[in-house]
Amino acid sequence: MNRISEYDTTRQALASLFEERFGCLPASIVRMPQGGGDRVYYRLGAPEGCSPASAVGVYGPDLRENEAFVGLTRVFFEAGIPVPRLYATGDGGHCYLLEDLGDTQLLSLILKGEGMELCRSSLADLAAMQSVDRSRWERLCMARPFSRRQVMWDLNYFKYEYLKPSAVAFDEEALEDDFERLADTLTDVPESTVGFMFRDFQSRNVMVDRGYPRFIDYQGGRPGPVVYDAVSFLWQAKAGFTAAVRRELIELYATEFACRRGIDASEITGQVPRFALFRTLQVLGAYGFRGLVEHRAHFLESIPGALANLAELLDSGALDGCPELKRVCRMLVADPRFEPVGHDGLTVTVFSFSYKKGYPADYSGNGGGFMFDCRAMHNPGRYAEYKNLTGRDEAVIAFLEERGEVQPFLASAHELTDKAVRRYLDRGFSSLQIGFGCTGGQHRSVYCAEATARHIAALFPEAHVRLVHREQNIEETIQ
Q1: Which of 75, 105, 162, 429 is packed most tightly, with the most Cβ within 10 A?
Q2: What pLDDT, on a 0 to 100 scale, did the predictor assign at position 248?
Q3: What pLDDT does 6 receive?
């Protein structure tokens, strides 16, 4: 690399660290995809003749988090646990270099129907990691041991970030009583089943390197009930494990951990239902915030799977001791926003909405699509006779059409959307979203969404067309 000055401060720090550790400047520094946290990752490629061929450089703004990861990595690597090799640290603790484990997540293999042997190996390695003597790693953890307070934080995260935004009515006192009961059972576990709790052990955090599983993102680890990690892995929404596969793998894990601790495997398996429920509620809180609020696609994509897991737990009796929580969870699993559309081809969803209330959420998780601003047209809502009407009423339709503004606006919009629908159909895509927004989501946008949905349904009978007037609480299937 000849012109290091072209890189920003972080890249310069990582390049210097690479040179200090390996004796050569990297030939390339490429930013890697952002994870769920604030850490930034780069792949540093070595020039010819320099070894290793590449390394992963990390910048983390949180020094405590960095110190936890670095310290835990050293301990677990020395203990033979499959974590990346730590090459170097620098920039006052903000940067570090790691062994490059490649780009293959175990999740990607699971989604292809592969990787079952790797899942077994991962759970066996997890049991080994959790069994490393506590005295070696506890002082390095940035988080306090698993406790009742942490349970209540996560349950209330679910309440405020998923349950309340879903507009499900509930009895607050009764729900808190259920949370208290659940917290009692989650914190009353034998000490023999407590060890290193990874906290976010899922197949996204297992990299497959040269055919073997390797663990990442354990900086949030703490002393806690080990079964939490096993259910985090097996009840991961996106992975979609069947009940039979879960039973097989939880038995394998319980046996492995029990052998290391000299206990009966039933001490582990008996805790599975309550922790599977807790983990499902916890991730729904995260999906609510990251997906419904921040609109991050892969979190939205995971919501239907998490609700399917919740439905299975409801049927199994895992919520029988929590009547109010059970009632609201039954309402959540019936949420029509996340029901399968029952159509194998392209679904075109056409929205009307108010800009005052933000853009429509994309529950398909695909992102993209079209958003058209109708506010340049004259607004019928300014006149008393139209205030209680919508763009579906004849008087409003006549107002918009007689002024001659809406026809060229829609002609231009349809010129774009028609081409996209045709290409989506030809390429086998499953989802396209089209939105029309105005000030109140009542007149102009409603008219345009109605006209566009019916236009697409008539022109492309092979497509499935959904019409959603968000502010009017109207949803229809046109075809």
Answers
A1: 162
A2: 96
A3: 37
3-state SS string over 137-180? HHHHCCCCCCCHHHHHHHHHHHHHHHHHHHCCCCCHHHHHHHHH
Residue 260 contacts by C-beta under 8 Å, 6 or more apart in sequence? Answer: 127, 128, 131
How high is the pLDDT of residue 35?
A: 67
Asked which of 69, 99, 129 is the last residue of a domain, the reply is 99
Place of tokens 């002082």: 139
How many other CB atoms are there within 10 angstroms of residue 356's CB atom?
11
Positive or negative: CA dihedral 285, 124, 70, 137: positive
CB atoms within 10 A of CB 372: 19
d(C-alpha 390, C-alpha 128), whole Å: 63
One domain, residues 74 and 202: no
Q: Say what the pLDDT of residue 137 is.
A: 98
At residue 462, the pLDDT reads 92
Write out residues in the chain with pLDDT < 50, as ranges. 1-7
- Residue 443's nearest CA partner among 370, 478, 394 is 394
Confidence at residue 479, expressed as pLDDT on a 0 to 100 scale: 66
Statement to judge: residues 332 and 368 lie in one domain: no
**Residue-number span of the structural domain to which 135 is assigned:** 106-338
> How many domains is the chain partitioned into structurally?
3
Select from 78, 99, 120 the last residue of a domain: 99
In 3-state terms the chain splits into helix, strand, coil percentages (rounded to 5) of 50, 15, 30
Residue 358: the pLDDT is 86
How far is the CA of 294 from the CAs of 58, 297, 305, 355, in angstroms?
24, 9, 19, 17
- What CATH number should be reported for the domain holding residue 130? 3.90.1200.10
The DSSP bridge pattern shows strands 474-477 and 370-373 to be unpaired
Cα–Cα distance between 164 and 156 in angstroms, integer?
10
Tell me the backbone φ, ψ of residue 242, rounded to 5 degrees.
-75, 165
Q: Which helix (H) or strand (E) holds 30?
A: strand 28-31
| Cα–Cα distance for residue pair 246/237, rounded to 1 Å | 13
- What amino acid is encoded at 251 in this protein? E
Q: Record the tokens describing residue 65, joined without a space.
A: 């988090």
Give 62: exposed, middle or buried? Use CB within 10 Å, 0-12, 13-18, 19+: middle
Q: Is 230 helix (H, G, I), strand (E, B) or coil?
A: helix
